[in-house]
Amino acid sequence: MSCWFILSALLSVYNKYIFGKKYFNFQFPLFMTSVNMLWHFLFSYFALDVLHLISEVNTSTQSWKSYLFYIIPCSVSAGLDIGLSNTSLKFISLTFYTMVKSSSPIFVLGFSFLFKLERVSIKLIIIIFVISIGVLLTVLAESEFDSLGFVLVIISTCLGGLRWCLTQILVQPVSRHSMHPLIAMRSLSPSMFITLLVVSLISEGPSTIFGSEYFTSFENFLLTLGIGLVQGIISFIMVLSEVKLLSLTSSVTLTIGGILKEMMMILISTLIFQDKLGPLNIVGFCITIMGILCFNIFRYLQAKRTEHDGDIMEMTINNGQSGTS
After folding, report:
1. Which residues form the Sugar phosphate transporter domain (predicted)?
2. Are 163 and 77 in contact (CB under 8 A)?
3. Which residues, at least 6 apart from 208, have a Cβ–Cβ distance to it below 8 Å?
């Protein structure tokens, strides 16, 4: 969890610096993100097929049903989630980005209900409503509101909910589609790369990309390559830690674990990028955090109740066996 927390915060700051108009201002975030997915594939391939880090794990390919219904949808949603998130940083502050991204439990829970990873309950619906109110107040209070940036980040957040629920299905041991996190990354990365590259070439244009100042000289090309490589290394380790956490917990638990990260990101944004917070921004964010904390308490009590019921069942079985002996 600590590895994911640190790298996630570092990547957010790094991406804002790369894509923000006031900073490095790299104008092709979708293209850069597609290249990162290619790095992810190469890193995971190297770890699996060259270093044989998990040789004891079955690395055979998945069935066509897994690819069609899980791997490809997960890859497309993950690629667009990351690509649109990075693109939104061109238009909105890191603080506003972080606040809107904190609405992810709404979409994670929604897709968890859809895929029957969570049971629908009145308490969860109320929690989703509270988080929605907090995000709405945050958006309404934003003094430098950019509609395009907001649409991009809210779509990416929705896709992120779908992404993590599908990833949970792919990597958790109890799932019949389960695979090792490194194998999941190797399987997902090619589709993510192709998805982002196609979207990039359509929206950003190949002539515009390769005719830009980032590729006109060998020195600029090396600089661009180096920036992308650093971003690729950070994001690879971060995503690997995310997938590993999902294999041990759940998509909702990972989302809740980001509470402290979101609060820390806002502090970092105000210190590094001089982002401004209004009173209504703070109120909205606090309401959002309150909703997420309520869910955390709900899940804790639910887990305790399940554990207690399991202990009672085990005692009943043991007593029954003792009575028949």
Report:
1. 2-296
2. yes
3. 28
Question: CA-CA distance, 226 to 265, in Å (whole number)?
Answer: 25
Q: How many CB atoms lie under 10 A from the CB of residue 234?
A: 18
Give the Cα separation of 244 and 51 in Å (integer): 19
- CA 36 to chain CA mean position, Å: 15
Would you tell me how many other CB atoms lie within 10 Å of the CB of residue 263? 15
Residues 6+ away with beta carbon under 8 Å from 185: 40, 41, 44, 236, 239, 240, 243
Q: Could you give the CA distance from residue 36 to residue 170 in angstroms, rounded to a whole number?
A: 21
Q: Reduce the secondary structure of 186-253 to three states and give it as a string.
A: HHHHHHHHHHHHHHHHHHCCHHHHHCCCCCCCHHHHHHHHHHHHHHHHHHHHHHHHHHHHHHHCCHHH
Q: What is the pLDDT of residues 165-179, one digit of tens each?
A: 888 777 765 555 567
CB 142 within 8 A of CB 136: no
Pairwise pLDDT comparison (82 vs 315), residue with the higher score? 82
Write down the pTM of the prediction.
0.75
Helices (DSSP H) in 89-217: which residue ranges?
Answer: 94-101, 104-114, 122-140, 147-171, 181-203, 206-210
At residue 59 the predicted structure's pLDDT band, cuts being 50, 70 and 90, is very low
Q: By three-state DSSP, how is residue 69 classified? A: helix
CA 146/CA 225 separation, integer angstroms: 30
How wide is the angle at C-alpha 235 spanned by C-alphas 116 and 13, nearest 5°?
Answer: 105
Q: How far is CA 156 from CA 24, 104, 149, in A?
A: 23, 9, 11
Residue in 178, 142, 141, 144 with CA at minimum distance from that of residue 66: 178
Q: What is the mean pLDDT of residues 266-280?
A: 78
Report angle CA 273, 275, 277 to the nearest 5 degrees. Answer: 160
